[in-house]
Automatic annotation (TrEMBL), chain B:
Residues 17-435 form the DUF112 domain. It comes from Maritimibacter dapengensis. This is Tripartite tricarboxylate transporter permease. The keyword Oxidoreductase does not apply. It holds the Pfam family TctA.
Length: 190, 507
């Protein structure tokens, strides 16, 4: 993949310099260009309801000015991109690429599930559960990975919630703990 | 001189020194892990630094920024996998040296070159600061608007071959920044009647999604990789000193790094390219470049490590970030109500000097750490990639959720994570979105302020700096089209020079 970063003496320096910045199409280029163009068109179509032009205000100070500039630029750039993709030779592997994108959604769901569980069962228990479950899901079976996940979870909670005092609310179930020092400790540190 | 001494006084705070230590050592470790760059680490740590003093928080983030490239050279040299994207060029000469049995020499040269480039750039900037203090006040609203516009133009045309996508993404970034309640006329913009969109989309949520979550998703979805490598033995100190055989190359690399770092939207890749090309053209053995040339290695590593200090210049002097990392740091300033810009250089020069001295110290700390830690870092490289994905996903949660305990923020970040994954797979840049968001906001405010004092369109460029910036913007756009036409005439195939050298989205 890296061939030709520095080209031979037969190619001028300016071309070499331009070559540095070149990027290349990958399978799925057409799909992404189509999606971005459709997205830009939807934004353009909804613009009359989504931005407001105020009477008696100069163009540059209009609240609608920058959104309009941005959406028009998106339509123009993504439209030209789509045109370029349509007239370019198809690169094989589009379906596999789109399947790859879809496969990644599973981990977005894992992340959201983790987010939903934290306020209920607390930061430390949910982090322990999340890392262990995901480690299992990824196919690790050696106990060392589960031990590593547990140590990592405890370290993250202690460092961020304990020492750096980041704002993460105590879990609802902590309120079920008997009143006293341990409940206070759990609410502050765990 | 008084400001400089006062700056040293600011650094004497134990909290600042501790942050420096954590940032520099942490940055090396993070940089050494392929797949985790400074951007991922900074994105995750950003919200945690909001509770710290500005200098403490910035020192920690700068430590990560400045030291990650040291760590990134280790896997680049030993296993042909750059730890951070800006170490990609290091693989060209570093890995062949390892295959020749010169791993220690290559590592020493990389660390030495990084040190020379880093320190030279900081010294140059300390000397340059009084000049900047004089020039910065000449930047009024219209000049800052044009500088921000220049940043947008540069980030678009710098992605040659994908300028259309870069333009579209930069525009998307500008649009995201406008979503929510408009602050002057209080009208809703692209909120679709949803209350949760009224407060807008937070930059940190977007950054965490695009950099951290997307990287976690990539690592989790990709097949497992667990790189193996062998120990390095020998005298590292002597190997580091070997860089002084290449003083000229290291110094020129530092110079290119400073120049390219200052220009918004350009950065490490251009600096490395210029440095590498210069080294090759002036070398007695140009054919060895790409096959294990020590000169090539020094050229690459000295240039990339000179950029972080220089990239702070447009941020501190004008409040304009040139790339994603400084854009993230800008949010640290905003949170503490410290507005970077001309006033900072006029009124808080000691703060600026403190940042620069902190950067010198971090380079010293990192080199000392590297004397002993290379073999320790080799163990870290071996973390299986999917397990690393679990770790990044877990850490990303802290970054997003701790902002305002919002499930919606997390969902937005996850959405941007998937978008980032698609862009990475397509070898498309994510930086234009981030710069579009930040620079779009600056342009909106500054255009409104500038136009209030402008009668005719030509008035906008009547001042010398504004005129120069406008001419540069026009010339860059013309130059871009001239380049395209010339390229077309040469008739090179689309993939004639395919390479992954500029995968800036994997930083």
């Amino acid at each position: 993949m890296r061939r030709g970063f520095l080209m031979g003496a037969d190619v001028s320096r300016s071309q070499t310099f331009q070559d540095l910045f070149k990027r290349y199409r990958r399978p799925g280029d057409f799909v992404i260009s189509l999606m971005s163009f459709v997205f830009a068109l939807v934004l353009l179509a909804t613009m009359p309801e989504q931005v407001e032009w105020v009477d008696g205000v100069a163009l540059y100070a209009q609240p609608a000015f920058w959104p309009t500039v941005a959406v028009i630029a998106m339509v123009v750039f993504s439209g030209l991109h789509l045109f370029g993709a349509m007239v370019s030779e198809r690169i094989r592997g589009r379906t596999q690429e789109i399947l790859y994108w879809l496969r990644s959604l599973e981990f977005a769901v894992w992340f959201i599930a983790y987010v939903m569980v934290v306020p209920v069962i607390g930061y430390l228990p949910s982090t322990l559960l999340f890392t262990a479950a995901l480690t299992f899901r990824l196919g690790y079976r050696n106990w060392r990975y589960f031990a590593g996940a547990a140590v990592f979870s405890v370290a993250v909670v202690v460092i961020f919630k304990g020492f750096l005092q980041v704002k993460i609310p105590a879990g609802d179930i902590y309120s079920l703990l008997p009143a006293g020092d341990f409940r206070l400790f759990a609410m502050i540190w765990l | 001189m008084g400001d400089f001494v006062s700056g040293l006084g600011l650094l004497a705070d134990p909290a600042v020194l501790f942050a420096l230590l954590i940032g520099s050592v942490g940055g090396v470790v993070i940089g050494a892990i392929p797949g985790v760059g400074a951007a991922v680490a900074i994105a995750i740590l950003l919200p945690a630094t909001f509770a710290l003093e500005p200098l403490v928080g910035l020192t920690m983030l700068l430590g990560i920024y400045g030291s990650s490239m040291y760590g990134g050279s280790l896997p680049a040299i030993l296993i042909n996998t750059p730890g951070t994207a800006v170490n990609a060029l290091t693989t060209y000469d570093g890995y062949p040296m390892t295959k020749r049995g010169e791993a220690l020499r290559a590592l020493g040269l990389a660390y030495g070159a990084s040190f020379v480039g880093g320190v030279l750039s900081i010294v140059a900037l300390i000397l340059l600061s009084p000049v900047l203090a004089k020039v910065a006040p000449l930047f009024g609203s219209r000049e800052i608007f044009l500088a921000a516009l220049l940043g947008i133009v540069l980030v678009v045309i710098a992605h040659r071959g994908q300028t259309l996508v870069a333009g579209s993404l930069a525009a998307f970034g500008i649009l995201i920044n406008t979503v929510g309640l408009e602050p002057v006329r209080y009208t809703q913009r692209f909120t679709f009647g949803q209350d949760w969109l009224s407060s807008g989309v937070d930059l940190i949520v977007v950054v965490l999604g695009l950099f951290a979550l997307s990287q976690a998703f990539v690592l989790l979805t990709d097949p497992e990789r667990a790189p193996t490598t062998q120990r390095v033995s020998g005298n590292m100190w002597a190997a580091i000193l070997g860089v002084f055989k290449f003083k000229r190359i290291a110094a020129s690399g530092g110079g290119f790094g400073v120049l390219m770092g200052i220009i918004p939207g350009v950065g490490e890749f251009t600096a490395q390219f210029l440095s590498y090309t210069y080294a090759q053209k002036t070398s007695k053995d140009p054919d060895a470049f790409g096959k294990g040339s020590p000169e090539g290695l020094v050229a690459s590593e000295s240039a990339n490590n000179a950029v972080p200090a220089a990239a702070m210049i447009p941020l501190l002097a004008l409040g304009i970030p040139g790339e994603a990392l400084t854009a993230m740091m800008l949010s640290v300033f905003y949170v503490h109500n410290v507005v970077p810009g001309p006033g900072l250089f006029q009124n808080q020069m000691d703060f600026v000097y403190a940042l620069y001295v902190a950067m010198i110290l971090l380079n010293v700390l990192v080199v000392v750490f590297m004397l002993f830690a290379s073999n320790l870092l080799i163990q870290i490289i071996r973390i299986p990639t999917r397990f690393l994905g679990v770790m990044i996903l877990t850490l990303s949660f802290v970054g997003v959720y701790s902002l305002r305990n919002s499930v919606i923020d997390c969902a937005i970040a996850a959405g941007f994570g998937v978008l980032g994954l698609v862009l990475k797979r397509q070898n498309l840049p994510v930086v234009p979105i981030v710069l579009g968001m930040v620079l779009g906001g600056i342009m909106e405010v500054k255009l409104r302020a500038a136009m209030a004092r402008v009668d005719t369109p030509l008035d906008f460029v009547s001042r010398p700096i504004a005129a120069i910036l406008a001419i540069v913007i026009v010339l860059l756009i013309i130059g871009h089209f001239v380049g395209l036409i010339r390229e077309k005439r040469v008739g090179l195939a689309e993939d004639a020079h395919d390479h992954d050298i500029h995968d800036s989205q994997t930083r």
